[in-house]
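Subject: design request, 204 residues
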C-alpha cells in the first residue's frame, strides 16, 4: 500500500520534484533523467513518484505550463502583437524569443531538442499540450493564420512559416562558427531583417 502523505508533505514534495525536474531536464534532458534522480532529495521511494505525476513527461508538461504565460507575454503580447506592422512584429518576435532562449533554460532546451516536446506530447495528452493556456506556439500559429487571411504574409502553410522562424532561433547554437564574435550581433540583425522581409508582403 502506498504511503499516505499529509497536505504539507505533498506540497513540499511537489515543489522538490518541480525543482529537481527543472534542473535535470534543462541540464541533461528528458530521456537521460531517471526517476531515481527526480526523487533523490525528497526522501520517498521511486514508486511514490506516481502519486504526484503520471510520468516524467507529465512533470515536464507541468514545468512548461507554469512558464507559458510569462513567455507568451514577452514574445507574443509585448513583441509580435505590439505593433500593427506585420514585418516589424516578426522582427520584434524573433529578437524577444532569442532573448528568452538566452534567459530561460527550459524553453532553450525545447527549442534545441524538439524531440523532447514530441515525447511529452506522445506520453501526455496531445490536446492538453496544444490547448495549454497561453501556449506561445499556438498563439504564433493563430497570428500567422490571421495575417495570411489579411494578405500580409506569403502563401505557405503556417507550419512552414513557423519552421522558417525557428531556423533563426537555432543560429545561436552555431555562433562560434560564424567568424568574428564581434560580427555576431550584426549577423543576427541582418538575418532577422531578411527573414521578416521575406515572409511579409509589401503593402500597396
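Subject: RE: design request

Done. Sequence follows.
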Amino acid at each position: 500500500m502506498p504511503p499516505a502523505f499529509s497536505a504539507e508533505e505533498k506540497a513540499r514534495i511537489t515543489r522538490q520534484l518541480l525543482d529537481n525536474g527543472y534542473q535535470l531536464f534543462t541540464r541533461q534532458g528528458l530521456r537521460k533523467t531517471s526517476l531515481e534522480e527526480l526523487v533523490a532529495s525528497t526522501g520517498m521511494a521511486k514508486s511514490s513518484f506516481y502519486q504526484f505525476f503520471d510520468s516524467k513527461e507529465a512533470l515536464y508538461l507541468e514545468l512548461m505550463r507554469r512558464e507559458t504565460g510569462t513567455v507568451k507575454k514577452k514574445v507574443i503580447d509585448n513583441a509580435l502583437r505590439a505593433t500593427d506592422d506585420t514585418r516589424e512584429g516578426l522582427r520584434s518576435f524573433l529578437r524577444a524569443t532569442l532573448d528568452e532562449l538566452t534567459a530561460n533554460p527550459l524553453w532553450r532546451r525545447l527549442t534545441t531538442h524538439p524531440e523532447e516536446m514530441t515525447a511529452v506530447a506522445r506520453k501526455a495528452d496531445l490536446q492538453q499540450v496544444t490547448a495549454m493556456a497561453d501556449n506561445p506556439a499556438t498563439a504564433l500559429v493563430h497570428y500567422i493564420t490571421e495575417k495570411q487571411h489579411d494578405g500580409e504574409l506569403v502563401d505557405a502553410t503556417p507550419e512552414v512559416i513557423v519552421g522558417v522562424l525557428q531556423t533563426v532561433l537555432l543560429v545561436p547554437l552555431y555562433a562560434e562558427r560564424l567568424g568574428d564574435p564581434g560580427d555576431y550581433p550584426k549577423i543576427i540583425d541582418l538575418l532577422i531583417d531578411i527573414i521578416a522581409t521575406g515572409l511579409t508582403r509589401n503593402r500597396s
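The CA atoms of residues 84 and 151 lie 13 Å apart.
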